[in-house]
Amino acid sequence: MVFKEGSVLLRIGLPAELAAMFGGVMAGGAMASRFDVSLGRMFVVVLVSAIMSDGIAYQVGHQFGSATLGYRVLIVRRERLLAAHRSLARRPCLAIVLSRFTLFGRRVLPTLAGATGIPYRRFLPWNALGNVIWSCALVAVGYQLGYMDRDVVNVSAAVFLLGVVLVVVVDAALWRLRSHAGPGG
User: Fold this and answer.
1) Predicted pLDDT at 9
2) How far apart, in whole angstroms, are the C-alpha atoms of residue 2 and residue 72?
3) What is the pLDDT of residues 49-93, one digit of tens each?
4) Could you give the CA distance from residue 141 to residue 104 in angstroms, rounded to a whole number?
5) What pTM, to 2 d.p., does this model score?
6) What residues does the VTT domain cover (predicted)?
7) So what's the pLDDT on residue 131?
């Protein structure tokens, strides 16, 4: 889910924060006995997923330009996009690190960085730093939440898993509708 949220191809889904925190929950407390997941492994999975997702978004932006951001970002969210562009131009390192902490930043800034020609060797270390901080914080919060009351954790896990199933079903349905709509609509 962390990887999927950053994808420039699949635009809907649960926020990656929930997936990262749920991973922490699975590694600690009441759910740890059900899942054979260590805190360290969960952190690595979340971190690698986030970095790979941003790397793919960067490459798509680099290859195809900002048009890949889509109508909603280019037209409807124009002011936010322009602010992100200005931030990237003024302080690219800070913008890249902080982009991980907002939904808009996670979905737009890596593609925008690629489209504006920031070299990948400059993008990657700052992106990795932001992802390390983000992943550590959220997996650790989830880990602590895993030690809450067992019933609360079980209900939360069931709701999260239901959400994942719904996202997959809706994504598949939307993909099918788009693929059958043709170029005109």
Assistant:
1) 45
2) 21
3) 999 999 999 999 999 887 777 656 667 677 888 888 888 999 999
4) 22
5) 0.73
6) 14-144
7) 95
Work out the percent of the chain whose per-residue pLDDT is above 70.
Answer: 79
8 A C-beta contact, residue 135 and residue 46: yes
Instruction: Extract the tokens encoding 34.
Output: 């059900």
Residues 6+ apart with CB under 8 A from 158: none
Residue pair 57/104 in contact (Cβ under 8 Å)? The answer is no
- Amino acid identity at 56: I
Taking the C-alpha atoms of residue 141 and residue 28, their distance in angstroms, rounded to an integer, is 10
pLDDT of residue 28: 79
Residue carrying structure tokens 């562009």: 85
- Domain range for 130: 2-181
Contact in structure between 37 and 26 (CB atoms under 8 Å): yes
Q: How many CB atoms lie within 10 A of CB 183?
A: 4
Residue ranges in the chain whose pLDDT is less than 50: 7-11, 184-185
Query: Residue 14 phi/psi, 5° resolution?
Result: -75, 145
Q: Is 4 within 8 Å of 21 (Cβ atoms)?
A: no
SS3 185: coil
Tokens 């709701």 map to which residue?
159
Q: What total number of domains does the chain contain?
A: 1
Cα 36 → chain centroid: 24
Can you point out the beta strands (E) in the chain? none
